[in-house]
Amino acid sequence: SGEIVVLEGEALSGLYYLQHGWLKVVKISPGGREQVLRFLEPGETFNEVGLFANQPNPATAIALEPAGVWLIRREAIRQLIRKHPEFAEHVLSKMAERLLYLVSLVTDLSLRPVTGRLARLILEEAEDDVLHRPRWYTQAELAARLGTVPDVVQRALRTLEKEGFIEVQRRLIRITDRGALAAIAE
């Protein structure tokens, strides 16, 4: 955990496939502040920018727990695309999804208050109105994902809980009023 898998600025020669474990993809400011761009779960790929744009990697990927990562070389990917156009469509679809996510992230960071960003994240990631938080998903990770600091996240969680919209436990957040939480997320 904490091991750098890919460093921002590295020139990489292929597509990475996450076999097991979780990674976070971050931008780190010169002062050390982190903005989480996304979390990667098993089965996901990353480094499409390095692969298709032939540019250095624009972000750093860090292991959140022990992880297995495979590198698929550029030439192998190109052969796959030529032989199997449906693979190219799949990769383009994933890249489009990530672009939409990043547009949403920019909108959130610039236009929504932290409480609204937190409400939206809880709604999007909860399954059956419960957001399970693995051991690595700390207040600091949540804050980095929301573009703020842990103290502000703690206050936002307390506010949402005090209003009766959520219930916070050690490793989970339970939605108790989905409608009200959705109104705050808008």
Cα-atom Rg, whole angstroms?
A: 18 Å
Quaternary state of this entry equals single chain
User: SSE order, as H and E?
Assistant: EEEEEHEEHHHEHHEEH
CATH class of the largest domain: Mainly Beta
- Hey, roughly how much beta strand do the residues contain? 15-25%
The CA-CA distance between the termini, in Å, is 34 Å
- Helix fraction? 40-55%
Q: Class by helix and strand content? A: alpha+beta
Mean pLDDT: 90
Largest sheet: 4 strands, antiparallel
**pLDDT < 50 stretches:** none
Shape: elongated
Number of domains: 2
Search tags:
Arc Repressor Mutant, subunit A, 7 helices, single chain, three-stranded antiparallel beta sheet, 2 domains, 186 residues, Jelly Rolls, elongated
What secondary-structure arrangement, pairings included, does this model have?
Elements: E1 4-6, E2 14-20, E3 23-28, E4 34-40, E5 45-46, H1 48-53, E6 60-63, E7 68-73, H2 74-83, H3 85-111, H4 114-125, E8 130-132, H5 139-146, H6 150-162, E9 166-168, E10 172-175, H7 178-185
Antiparallel strand pairs: 1-6, 2-5, 2-7, 3-4, 3-6, 8-10, 9-10
Helix pairs in contact: 2-3, 4-6, 4-7, 5-6
